[in-house]
Protein 1
Amino acid sequence: MIKDFIKYYAPYKKLFFLDLLAAFLFSACNLVYPMITRDIMNDVVPNKDLRMLMIFGITLVVIFIFKAILNHFMQYWGHVVGVRMQGDMRSYVFTHLQKLPNSYFDNNKTGVTMSRIINDLMEVSELAHHGPEDLFISGVMLIGSFFILLNINVSLTLIIFAILPLLIWFAIAQRKRMNKAFMETRVKTGDVNATLENSIAGMKVTKSFCNEYEELKKFNSSNNVFKVARESAYKVMADYFSGMNLFMDILELIALIAGGYFAYIGKITLGDFTAYLLYVKMFIEPIKKLINFTEQYQSGMTGFERFMEIVNEDTEKEVENPIELKDVKGNINIENISFTYEDKKEVLKGLNLNIEAGKTVALVGPSGGGKTTLCSLIPRFYEFEQGDIKIDGISVKDVSLKSLRKNIGVVQQDVFLFTGTIKDNIICAKPDASDKEIIEAAKKARIHEFIESLPEGYDTYIGERGVKLSGGQKQRISISRIFLKNPPIIILDEATSALDNVTEREIQASLEELSKDRTNLVVAHRLSTIRNADEIVVLTDSGIAERGTHDELISKGGVYSKLHK
Ligand code: ADP
Ligand code: MG
């Protein structure tokens, strides 16, 4: 874990070491003040040496200015190192997210993933620079003041250090409790985020069912769990800090009484006694810092652990040296495919289906029969174990995912539009497309005129996820994407099911245009749209029930003809 963490320092090595150097010099400067105080009390005052006092004064002014500069450097550049590391982690985890299989997104709530990338990494960033800075400052000040204290008086120093093990024991005992409590709050933060994300996305549904109260209850209950978790984490923290502070007060007390006694019996001068007290105080500061550090370390590392959990998720697999699909004709052979979503019941059982290049095969059947599943196996949105799918005779498992997906255009029932302009939403199919190509695609999808009629044309903002468009308009934009992508294989998965009859009929024309000279797999809800398919396959829970052309199946009088009626 630590090793993985340290990796992220690599690009900022120089800056980081400068930061540590600043921390070192800063703490060394801190050690000077008590020493000068001692000399003033021991020498300057008895000898009435005003010149020396002036020199000490000037020295301190210089040191304080130097300290301010160092402090400024640490505050600014230290944080910069943290922020940059956090930025790197974010973009790394985002790249990784893009490679995760669909099953990850099926199984993980968006809000939780977001919380890991935003909140958790914030804590990691804090740890990244404060951690080593604090360790360094504390180390230098602890060791420095220890030796100076020894130099002042050995027996006094040993008394102080005798109670240190007790303090360390207490700190370690509390550490585990803190770790657990903080992990818990991390998890709960993710839950609150997920609930919130879900509720905001579904606000319109909530309104339409007047479900505000129920949603509020749901939110409050996860908010409460979060509150309770945080409260108990703060309880653990309070135990820890109050315990540690008590120890330190005792330490100061011992120093004061023992030192006072030593001065009383004349074993040390008053100057030494004052310096001694100042050093003991100074030496408490780094201990406090170390305690802060353990807390920061806990929360930073739990954050990093959660980050690593995403990073360690398996990505979509590719074979070594995958084949690049080129000049695809579009023959699709589905051979004996069986498929199960993560240990649930078998969705597809030994399915066989051939689609010749340029032909249209329609899949129909009851909902839940596995039509969508089959459609998602071809572009390998899910991994199948048994059977094979070949495109032009090459197994989809042997080709690169990129070239595979470039050759397949999928139109689904629920269109996802990104927040942005219409142009943004079409051009995502081919980022280097010219305006002319975009307009051409929109014309083919028969949405160009509508877009032109908008005040800002292609640059019109369509609201979050396209809320400002009708279902038919959204579907046409998604069809323009496919025209622009221009793949040889098209999969239409109930592309028009969500639309009314009139809109469906209108869109049908653009879909027919899209299917020309391509291989098509069409899942249709309304049978009227697939009459002309070269083959119709009826898929039910128990596999393919029947297949043939429309006329063949009607005359056969089986499932299809019943569905048709
Ligand atoms: P169809 O498109 O024919 O209506 P699907 O392929 O969507 O059927 O679903 C087939 C079965 O697989 C259903 O029982 C459904 O519950 C299940 N299923 C679909 N998608 C997933 C998924 N992402 N994870 C787990 N199970 C799923
Ligand atoms: Mg479906």
Protein 2
Amino acid sequence: MERQNFVLKGNLCYSLDEKNLSVVEQGYLVCEDGVSAGVYETLPEEYRQYPVVDYGDKLIVPGLVDLHVHAPQYAFRGLGMDMELLDWLNTHTFPEEAKYRDLEYAASAYGIFAEQMKHSATTRACIFATVHREATELLMDLMEETGLKTMVGKVNMDRNTPDYLVEDDAPQSAGDTIRWLDESAGRYERTKPILTPRFIPSVTDDLMGGLNVIRKRYHLPVQSHLSENQGEIAWVKELCPWSSCYGDAYDKQGMFGRDGDGYECKTIMAHCVYSGEEERKLLKERGVYVAHCPQSNTNLASGIAPARRYLEEGIHIGLGSDVAGGFTESIFRAMADAVQVSKLYWRLVDESAKPLTMEEAFYMGTKGGGSFFGKVGSFEKGYELDAVILDDAKLRHPQPLEIKERLERFIYLSDERHIVGKYVAGSKIF
Ligand code: GUN
Ligand code: FE
């Protein structure tokens, strides 16, 4: 993919922090070697030799970041949305994921997923595959071709899983994981592996210990699920009587962020709907990222995650689509959902937890989640240049609107037809 020095011109909107959105009308965003060299109202002399791509009156925002999505669940979006988590997993999710043993099915279903992700506003994603090593490698091949920068995980499950999907035992699951890592090493520029124990109920202590050894040897990030549903939390208490909370069950097994051993262990935990004081303290101390997935939490009647609290307590937080708990891969939709559920939380649960603002939701879907990938999710100087071009002309309004109002409407009203261009680390995707 071609990467060069150039300038994007248009109406630029990006987060400085969770409270402050920077808007530069008819601004210039300079890209040098895949990285932002800054945003300018007038183009400085030193950049005048770079070609300018003029997007006219369109909006230009940082690429969106999906911290939690299940690629093999894309095909059954919208089905079983009347169930809670554990029934939904057994009835819909596990039977569907078992199909990925068949590489022909995997190629066609993952092909649809990859194509859809390519044309979405998402430029970075952390993706669950299934337990199947070969299908996971195929998914990585397909994601690499999209030009997006992603982390993909072969899932580990060696207990409490139906026979048709469960791995044989801890050594086999760990061994397959090592083979997957060795086979994918050096094969991709944009696609990285991430360790993916599904959640505590489906991984034995033996296997979790083995994954911790692999994590250190290969210096890998980790993704999993945490405190999503009350039945699930009660189950974890039974399975790990030695843990003081769900997060501690990961932590005691070395799979919960910074480990004090000098091994960086960047970790994402999806949901965190019911993380109490002890768990939040652990999330913060270990630098663990919360993937807030409001649509999934609504569809599976899991509850409402206290996103406001996570922001205030300085816990890393980004957004996740959690397809197929969420029925759409749109992170714009996740922003709108995050604001909506925060209002219900405020009204029904805790009157002191003010609803999220549009700026906060936009921050979570860009810079908040983006920092998991490094300097990603903003247009400030030094950030990798991920950008999407938004055409809101068809979202008609009888009067001229401010740029920020146009972005706000776009978050709620747009779909992928309105995404008309995309750049990832300075490479043009379309
Ligand atoms: N917990 C364990 N597996 C899953 C999954 O596939 N989706 C969601 N939402 N939660 C989970
Ligand atoms: Fe999930």
